[in-house]
Write a structure and sequence with these properties.
elongated; 8 strands; 2 helices; mainly beta
Length: 227
Amino acid sequence: MRINKILWIFIALFFQGQAQIHEIGGFVGGSNYIGDIGKDNFIAPNHISFGGVYRWNKSPRHAYRLSYTYGKITANDLDVKDGSRPQRGLQFENRVHDITLGLEINFLEFDLHQFGIQTTPYVMAGISYFNYKENYFINKQLQFDQNAWSLGIPMIVGVKSKLTRSLVIGAEIGARYTFTDNLDGSNPKNDNLANRRFGNLSSNDWYVFTGFTLTYTFGNNPCYCPY
């Protein structure tokens, strides 16, 4: 039901934006997590992630963007060299289905109707809605509780180039600050499992997608007008 609503939003944006230029394509890269288990490296992709990207370019300086990304996240305390985590010896695995909607801002003019190669750095912010598994630990063994949805705040930075008249390639790092502390099973929201909580319970988890996008452009010439 939730995914159907997102698809209807996508369709509405498409038909309302026929006077603009569109991009649609894919993302492939890696995923990693930051939380209470394993290493705390911010950018350390250790599993493949992939998905789809749609942009609705409203001007050479900004675009609305909708994306879906799937990524597996894992961590192991034994990968940490120092501290108490190696003695604890926990490890986990989870899978994230991420839907992100937001505004992408170009640092430089990026007019898709201009001939020749164009390149610009960009940033994006918005809202993420993602599915994951609520887990918990018993005797160091990860146990499944329930499927869950939560919100996150995406913070994406990247650079993109127009390779041909119809193809745009990009490289980006996209971190999501989540509103859950249980991607790793350390803080189950089920109150019946309160005695299974551990770690820093006041700090929520993150996940990061690092990779490349390739999009195909289509649509009518936009009217980049101030009125």
